[in-house]
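agent> Task received from the user: take the single chain below, predict its 3D structure, and emit structure tokens. No templates, no multimer pairing.
agent> Plan: (1) validate residues, (2) run structure prediction, (3) serialize to tokens, (4) report one or two observations.
agent> Step 1 OK, no nonstandard residues flagged.
tool_call: predict_structure(input=
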Amino acid sequence: MANDSDSHKLALKRLRDGTKLVYYCDGKIYLEGLKESSGIKCLCCNTVVSASRFEAHAGYGSRKKPYSYIYVKSKNITLHELSVISNGDQEHDQNNDDESVLTNVIDQMDAVQGEQGSGLDAVREDAEIRAIKYEDDEDCTSCVLCGDTKFLAPPEFGPLTIMLCDQCDREYHVDCLKKHGMADLKVKPVSDWFCSVHCRRIYWKLKQLRREEAISTLNFVDFLKVRRQTTIDSIKLKFINSTMDKYRSESLVSDAVDAILDGFPSFADARDQILSLVQGTKERYRGMLCMVLLVNSRIVTVAVFRVFSNEVAELPLVATIRHRRKEGYFRIMFDYLKNLLCLLEVQKIVLPATDGALSMWEARFGFRRMNDEDVSRYLKSYPFIIQFPDTLMLAKRIPNPLELEADSSQH
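)
tool_result: status=success, residues=411
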């Protein structure tokens, strides 16, 4: 049987998208949301967040028991209770998959509540909320300026209201923004909000790039023809699948995942996770961009990266199909990415590297190993930076535009 944390997340994941959820305690609804993908779309900020963050946005981040207080609104049941019921049903029917078990639970609840009434109106005032202790793998949210987890429950707006930057995902108290001279907010913004001019600029530039059909790299074609002594009709860079807009290319996404698996056969059992990473569908992957290099319309190299702010970007995954390695394709892609980050005035790019890849990243691309203090500092501000098991974190300083121009003039 799955542990408590796993079963809670599974109960949430298997609910139908659009299911209404509420954070409810002491006879009062503090926050409403909708189930979306594997998270909850918080209606106070229209952002898909984890259960832990949803609890924090309700003003109870220090409680750290989100699944015991988040209710399926129409069913009068918590996510914790739903996970307990579904686990019990699974023990009786090992042949049922997770989704069918939860569907049966919901159907049974519908039948009972058809006679007894439904919704939170039917909650008995003396009902005991069965809380449990468990370790969630997602850190509780906190203001990056003061570190406090206290928030003002929406829809109220005041000094302890939390503001979430639409680019870097860092969270700020309204009062802390004012004290640090960053913003003096009197009402909650009705549209996108950014914590700095840098984040605003990065957001809109990346969104603009995402809408371009392709970024031609024809200036590299002659170099490749000479080096490989073969005919190349076209070579292009393309962005696919970002959560910034609704554009999706299922064919390109599938081809990109296939290319990654070709480059890393050992990842074969992790296809779903790689797909989530490429698409940026999970909360911890929000803002991921996937860039592919196509030679004669076929994907040769894939890079998944994310720009958090002007401080740091990450490059958690790159792959070149096996029979096209050592032909300079990733160098083309990395040079483009470096120029893009320079344009965005990003200071550093970080990535996780295995022991076998350390020499390549250090000798050929100029990365350096990060010390524990630097890693901790970045993770404190950007907790979603990806670290894989048995890897070391590397960093590379991005040259500023003047340095890049001077370097180009010397070649």
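agent> Step 4: summary for the user.
The CA atoms of residues 342 and 403 lie 10 Å apart.
agent> Done.
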